[in-house]
Specification:
Elements (H helix, E strand, L loop, with lengths): L1 E7 L12 H5 L7 E7 L5 H11 L4 E6 L1 H8 L8 E6 L5 H5 L6 H10 L2 E9 L2 E3 L2 E5 H10 L6 H13 L7 E5 L2 E5 L1 E7 L21 E7 L3 H12 L10 E5 L1 E6 L4 E6 L2 E6 L2 E14 L1
Parallel strand pairs: 1-2, 1-3, 3-4
Antiparallel strand pairs: 5-6, 5-16, 7-10, 7-14, 8-9, 8-13, 10-11, 11-12, 13-16, 14-15
Helix pairs in contact: 2-3, 6-7
């Protein structure tokens, strides 16, 4: 008997998702599956619910939401034998898209039922995990403004990007170490990716892989507003590398250190966080999460 727990973000995407005991029972028959449904109602609540499900003996835990919900659930499963299932009902759904998990709820459930498990890499930032991507600078400011939107849509993301563009200020100097080489920068953006998509089919790291044991890093130094607009346009057509000042790396570890201040504002899998530390140590845990694909 498969003990499956569903951790559902009820306001993910449009908030009108038909994930109920009755709808799930149509595909997951009671003779073979025991179903438990739990609903998150605030940030980090999905983490708490997942930890409870682990103690209750769940063999599969399904994250029903976007990349933020997946992050909260999956962070509890790293290094365990419990499989992560995904029903992508969020706005961007970058990780699910990378894993070829369909947005159609019925098809996503069928994948969970077939239980084809693959192991993927996991990114780590100090005491946090990320599965898709993380970023500081302009990227994190966009997410901060995006979280203040009334809805999570592509249009709201564009509006948040424009607001961040208007709010643009010079970043504080950061010491960046990659592969034992250190440089000082006032970066427009530092983007670290484990997967090949941010969401909405947008990508800064199209060659990134969830299974190669490497992080793909994009560093954009402080640039003019005109070049920011150029960078945004090139990003939409996956040609951002044409901008000469853009630096790309593949690495197992990157360290960020700031002399001024002790708080990093960062986006982690599309959610905004403040990390109170002068140093961010970012690495990769190879093939440490079981995912149903």
């Amino acid at each position: 008997m498969e003990n499956i727990h569903f951790i559902i973000n009820p306001i993910a995407g449009s908030g009108n998702n038909d994930i109920t005991q009755k709808s799930l029972s149509k595909y997951l028959e009671k003779e073979n599956f025991t179903l438990h449904l739990k609903y998150s109602n605030h940030k980090k609540h999905a983490t708490q619910l997942t930890q409870e499900s682990i103690t209750e003996g769940a063999t599969t835990i399904v994250a029903c939401g976007g990349d933020g919900t997946i992050n909260e659930v999956a962070s509890c499963l790293v290094g365990t034998s419990i499989a992560l299932g995904i029903i992508p009902i969020g706005s961007g759904n970058g990780l699910a898209s990378n894993l070829n998990i369909p947005k159609t709820i019925q098809k996503a459930i069928e994948i969970i039922k077939d239980r084809n498990i693959t192991k993927i890499d996991v990114g780590s930032i100090n005491n946090n995990y990320f599965f898709s991507n993380a970023g500081i600078g302009f990227d994190s400011n966009v997410i901060k403004n995006y979280e203040n939107s009334s809805t999570r849509t592509l249009l709201c993301y564009i509006k948040a990007s424009l607001k961040s563009f208007n709010e643009l200020q010079k970043q504080e100097e950061i010491e960046i170490t990659i592969d034992d080489k250190t440089k000082l920068l006032n970066p427009f953006m530092v983007f670290i990716s484990n997967s090949n998509e941010l969401g909405y089919k947008i990508s800064l790291t199209p060659k990134a892989s969830l299974k190669d044991g490497l992080l793909d890093v994009i560093i954009v130094p402080q640039i003019s507003k005109l070049k920011i607009l150029l960078f945004g346009t090139l990003m939409l057509i996956k040609k951002h590398h044409i901008l000469k000042k853009t630096e790309s790396y593949q690495t197992k570890h990157i360290k960020l250190y700031r002399n001024m201040g002790s708080i990093f504002e960062i986006q982690i899998d599309g959610e905004f966080y403040k990390i109170e530390d002068k140093t961010l140590s970012i690495g990769i845990k190879e093939k440490s999460l079981n995912v149903i694909t």
